[in-house]
Design brief:
The complex is a heterodimer of chains A (515) and B (152).
Chain A: H1 13-16, H2 22-25, H3 30-38, H4 50-55, E1 100-102, E2 108-110, H5 111-119, E3 142-143, H6 146-153, E4 156-158, E5 169-171, H7 175-182, E6 187-189, E7 198-200, H8 209-218, E8 223-225, E9 232-234, H9 238-245, E10 250-252, E11 263-265, H10 266-275, H11 277-320, H12 386-473, H13 476-499, H14 508-514
Antiparallel strand pairs in A: 1-2, 1-3, 4-5, 6-7, 8-9, 10-11
Helix pairs in contact in A: 12-13, 12-14
Chain B: H1 2-16, E1 22-26, E2 32-37, E3 51-56, E4 67-71, H2 106-118, H3 129-135
Antiparallel strand pairs in B: 1-2, 2-3, 3-4
Classes of the chains: A mainly alpha (515), B alpha+beta (152).
């Protein structure tokens, strides 16, 4: 059957571990371990050598595969914040369903409970525990409706580690992640290689506390005598004692820093230090040393900052006084000088470069051929003072501005004149055009009236002839036509009579051909 | 593990509320409990009598049925019933391997026995009671009862 893997009982943990990781197996209790190297009796197990580790790399002896081999929380043991709806309770385990399944008879059970119940039954004759109905194991158990699973997920539970101090309370669906990933009170294996006990996750980094506890209170060999002063003390504290307290240990004079070579027992050290001038001076020297180191450390960033600033300054200088400042392409001293190279291609009004103060340069030495070596002389020109520089700058700018103002006025006058001239011409032309248009209008008027007159004349003659022919020869139909055309001809004739007196009849034939 | 989890839940529920006529006497551990039952209606056979039941749970409870027998002492007799032997062993399909189902519990067994007594009218023992009581060395759940009588 598909019964889930049983949770191993606690004493099975070792065999359920996978192969170990040597780096994790290194014990972390270095301090507590050292005295043991002197006295083997009752000491903790020492760090295993790589050889020993390899030898112990068999499945039975390896327990440190994963640093944290936690068991998933048992849903049946969870404590629910409020009483669960009795419809969500499994009848077999009497707790809210865990991974529920459904049988065809619509009875629900935890998957695990149902498998337990069916263990005792033969495959062919499995029955529903509630109604004893026969179960078709090829088809059942069926999945439960989604809403059941959701209701179960939303049950509010306390953390299984509540007794250890965890106050986590949340929906049941999150309890697995909480216990395995986040809960600080989840029990994990003690980090010590040979300690078989558990420790809460939050204490994992502290190393094996069990052994320290053992060393302090329960170990029969926990106390020892100091090899120097033979004082009885805890083996655990021997190292600290020898290092800092024991009066019989031979320690060097504090003046070693300055050069004192005396080394006496700690108890006699005070007497020596009183007389030793080097020991007296030692604290001052140590202070001085520390101060020097601090100053040096502070000097380092400062010098770096100075370097950066110098770089920036030189960049700025370059920008202000470029190396090709003396190049004749800059219209400097006299922009109107016709001999200057810069104006051979320039338009009538020069466009000086305002990036440069034109008058601020000292006279260029005549021997300096700037067009040949424009980049060879980057040295900034010397100035008497900043104010002088600014004044010359100001003067040159003023000159420039007045020159531009003149040029502008010149341009303005010329443009005005041009506009007036152009206007005059355009006005004349418009007059001409108007006259031409008037002539054409008159001509058109005359043409229209002439055409109308010609038409009325022709229709009058044809209309009269047809009416006469209709009246003499034929019937009513043509008679009505005749009246229609008579009406038309009469109105046309009436309109024609208005214009007729103004026109000469002789013109009519010629106008016909034109139209 | 499974049994103790389940029994602890049942126990807390029994402490909470019990059906009329049923009392929890002793439940110190998860292996043996004592319950008292009494017939509520006025059946003259069981008037004013209280019977003591002993439940013995195995590790596999509730997959396996508990062993349930009547216990006899000075205050608690064995009730008269054609399916109850005079040594307290009960012949009830519910308590047999085949008849048991994990959805039953202590309370439901008590109620079943209560109703079994209530509906009985015969003041008699099962056939062969004397012989059975004398010779039976088996534990109650190992006995293969033949459930012939569907009347009661």
């Amino acid at each position: 059957m598909s019964s889930p893997e049983p949770i191993p009982p606690p004493n099975d943990r070792r065999s359920s571990r996978a192969s170990s990781n040597a780096s994790l197996a290194v014990p972390t209790l270095d301090n507590t371990r050292e005295p043991v190297e002197l006295l083997v009796v009752g000491g903790p197990p020492s760090t295993p050598s790589p050889l020993a580790l390899r030898a112990s790399n068999s499945p039975s002896s390896n327990r440190r595969k994963s640093r944290i081999a936690k068991l998933p929380p048992d849903v049946h043991l969870l404590e629910y914040l409020s009483a669960c709806d009795s419809n969500l309770i499994c009848l077999i385990c009497h707790s809210p369903f865990d991974k529920p399944v459904q049988l065809a008879c619509e009875h629900f059970f935890c998957r695990e409970c149902l498998d337990h119940a069916w263990d005792a039954q033969h495959d062919a004759q499995k029955t529903c525990p509630t109604c004893r109905g026969r179960v078709d194991t090829t088809r059942e158990p069926l999945p439960v409706p989604k809403i059941i699973a959701t209701m179960l997920d939303e049950l509010v539970v306390k953390c299984p580690n509540t007794k250890s101090g965890c106050d986590w309370i949340e929906q049941r669906v999150n309890v697995h992640d909480h216990v395995l990933l986040y809960c600080e009170y989840t029990l994990v294996d003690c980090p010590d290689f040979d300690c078989h006990l558990y420790i809460t996750q939050k204490d994992f980094h502290k190393g094996c506390l069990h052994y320290t506890e053992h060393q302090r209170t329960t170990c029969p060999n926990r106390s020892t005598a100091c090899p120097h002063c033979s004082v009885e003390l805890l083996r655990l504290e021997l190292n600290a004692h020898v290092k800092d307290i024991c009066p019989k240990v031979i320690v060097p004079c504090p003046g070693t820093l300055v050069g004192c070579t005396v080394a006496v027992e700690r108890a006699d050290l005070a007497g020596h230090a009183k007389g030793c001038s080097m020991a007296i001076m030692a604290p001052y020297f140590r202070d001085q040393q520390a101060r020097i180191e601090r100053s040096e450390a502070r000097l380092e960033p400062l010098s770096r900052k100075v370097g950066i600033l110098e770089d920036g300054l030189s960049k700025i200088t370059n920008m202000l006084y470029p190396p090709n400042a003396n190049d004749s392409s800059f219209p400097v001293t006299n922009p109107l000088d016709p001999n200057s190279d810069a104006f051979t291609t320039a338009p009538l009004v020069p466009t000086p470069d305002f990036r440069l103060p034109p008058a601020s340069f000292p006279p260029v030495p005549p021997s300096h051929d700037t067009s040949q070596t424009p980049l060879t002389n980057p040295t900034p020109p010397p100035f008497d003072s900043q104010i002088h520089h600014l004044l010359t700058l100001h003067g040159s700018l003023r000159d420039e501005v007045s020159r531009i103002a003149n040029a502008l006025t010149d341009y303005e006058g010329r443009t005005n004149m041009m506009i007036i001239n152009e206007n005059q011409r355009v006005k004349d032309e418009m007059l001409h055009t108007n006259a031409a248009i008037n002539g054409m209008r008159m001509q058109l008027h005359w043409l229209v009236s002439a055409t109308l007159q010609q038409r009325t004349g022709s229709t009058n003659s044809t209309g009269n002839s047809t009416s006469r022919a209709g009246g003499s020869t034929d019937s009513n139909a043509s008679g009505t036509q005749g009246t229609n055309s008579n009406l038309g001809s009469r109105s046309a004739g009436a309109s024609a009579t208005l214009h007729l007196p103004l026109r000469r009849l002789s013109d009519s034939t010629r106008q016909n051909t034109k139209l | 593990m499974f049994a103790s989890k389940r029994l602890s839940k049942e126990l807390s529920k029994l402490h909470d509320k019990l059906p009329p006529g049923i009392t929890l006497i002793k439940a110190d551990d998860f292996t043996e409990w004592l319950m008292d039952i009494r017939v509520i209606d006025s059946n003259p056979l069981y008037q004013d009598e209280v019977y003591r039941l002993k439940f013995v749970f195995s590790q596999t409870y509730p997959i396996e049925a508990p062993e349930v027998v009547f216990v006899k002492d000075e205050d608690h007799p064995i009730p008269w019933h054609p399916h109850v032997y005079s040594n307290g062993i009960i012949c009830l399909d519910l308590l047999d391997r085949q008849g048991w189902s994990p959805v039953h519990n202590v309370e439901s067994v008590c109620v079943s026995l209560q109703s079994m007594l209530t509906s009985n009218t015969k003041q008699e023992r099962p056939p062969g009671d004397e012989h059975f009581v004398k010779h039976n060395k088996q534990r109650p759940k190992d006995i293969n009862f033949v459930f012939h009588d569907n009347q009661v």
